[in-house]
Design brief:
The structure is a single chain. The protein has 147 residues and is mostly helical. The chain folds into two domains: 56 residues, lambda repressor-like DNA-binding domains (434 Repressor (Amino-terminal Domain)), CATH 1.10.260; 85 residues, no CATH class. Helix content is 73%, strand content 3%. The chain has a two-stranded antiparallel ribbon with strand order 1-2. The termini are far apart.
Length: 147
């Protein structure tokens, strides 16, 4: 462990992300990120420090890599999770994707619905971003196109 003089909060602010988005996107536990930013945790491992330096050096490149890995991780684990875990994992993913592109957000939502429609309750669909009354219209449209 090294003494941490790295400005994690400054890096996060420079890329324009909330703590939650930064933590989810780059794979840090939210509690650790908060502790680093508040100075509660002063030590950081060399690997994590190197990762933070890479983000600082090329934030856009690292965002692209991290978003791709995040998407792959969400898809690869969905079959092993219960419906509540699926909703949580996908909700976290959507919260990050929405920061980058609404088109990517909606295409992710459509693709997720098509491949996992039986796993999630109607209430969960509303929590994932459907407004009351629109979820049925969306489901009918998708069911018609992909049946």
């Amino acid at each position: 462990m090294k003494n941490m003089d790295f400005d994690v909060a400054g890096l996060r602010r420079s890329v324009g992300f909330s703590q939650k988005t930064f933590a989810i996107l780059f794979g840090f536990p939210l509690g650790s990120l908060k502790n680093w930013e508040q100075g509660v945790r002063k030590n950081i491992s060399g690997g994590v420090l190197a990762y933070l330096e890479m983000i600082k050096f090329d934030p856009k490149g690292m965002e692209t890599i991290a978003l791709t890995k995040l998407s792959e991780n969400v898809e690869s684990c969905l079959g092993t999770l219960n419906p509540e875990q699926v909703e949580k994992r996908f909700s976290d993913y959507l919260s990050v994707v929405k920061v980058f592109s609404l088109d990517l957000y909606f295409s992710s939502l459509v693709n997720f619905y098509v491949s996992h429609r039986g796993l999630i309750s109607d209430e969960a669909w509303v929590r994932l971003g459907f407004k009351p009354g629109l979820e049925e219209k969306f489901k009918e449209q998708i069911d018609g196109e992909f049946s």
